[in-house]
């Protein structure tokens, strides 16, 4: 059965639960901007796969098993517009066999098989997502006791918008302490564990019941603190 996911701007939802604690986990240090894989296409073509992108997240960011129901990326407001490029974005997740030291051989980074989540499609010309790009329609449980988390995004038929500085960027982490990335660019090549991985927020619920807890889901507004160094990197 084909699974279809949705991209949309983050909405504030209020929820109360007596069994599960609704929360979110944000990974990354918000150092500067990066445009892979949503906001630029460096392959030079809109035909076929433009990028196979992997990102690893340290297991220590999670306090225990976590049921993920949304994944979000914030706009870096120091370059072009908040445009997620048109294309088909196929998402998978799994456990890392190499920690944060991702190899340029992307398949070898998994401990076991990757788990397909589905595909989200953005129409040609892209969408302006405002401040937060959010993936919904997912539901999987990540257990940090089994290793670091990998999220993989394969993009095809992506709008041919190069990284010129006129395109937009998402917030990214250039420390490499909590998250790294590896990717293969069509017509360019493959690259192993590098910094510049996207700051990412996982929304969902703790898999450990907390009786008597009233949970707020997405009821706050995330503020961006500090002054970002202006960098244009991929």
Q: Could you outline the blueprint of secondary structure elements for this entry?
A:
Blueprint: E1 6-9, E2 22-27, E3 32-34, E4 49-57, E5 66-76, E6 83-84, E7 87-95, E8 115-122, E9 127-128, E10 132-136, E11 140-142, E12 149-156, E13 169-173, E14 179-185, E15 189-194, E16 197-198, E17 200-206
Antiparallel strand pairs: 1-10, 2-17, 3-13, 4-12, 4-14, 5-10, 5-11, 5-13, 5-17, 6-9, 7-8, 7-12, 13-16, 14-15
Molecular structure report:
This protein has 234 residues and is an all-beta fold. It has one domain (6-206). Helices cover 0% and strands 41% of the residues. It contains no helices and 17 strands. The protein has strands spanning 6-9, 22-27, 32-34, 49-57, 66-76, 83-84, 87-95, 115-122, 127-128, 132-136, 140-142, 149-156, 169-173, 179-185, 189-194, 197-198, 200-206. The strands form 3 sheets. Strands 1, 2, 3, 5, 10, 11, 13, 16 and 17 form a 9-stranded antiparallel β-sheet that branches. A 6-stranded antiparallel β-sheet has the order 8-7-12-4-14-15, with no helix packed on it. The protein has a two-stranded antiparallel ribbon with strand order 6-9. Strand 14 and strand 15 (189-194) form a beta hairpin. The protein is globular and about 40 Å long. The chain starts with 5 loop residues before the first strand and ends in a 28-residue tail after the last strand. The model is unreliable at 9-19 and 210-234 (pLDDT under 50).
Radius of gyration: 17 Å
**Amount of beta strand:** 35-45%
Helix content: under 10%
Largest sheet: 9 strands, antiparallel
Structural class label: mainly beta
Order of helices and strands: EEEEEEEEEEEEEEEEE
Average pLDDT works out at: 85
Secondary structure tally: strands = 17
Low-pLDDT runs: 9-19, 210-234
The dominant shape is: globular
Report how far the terminal alpha carbons are from each other.
35 Å
Tally of separate helices: 0
| Count of separate structural domains | 1
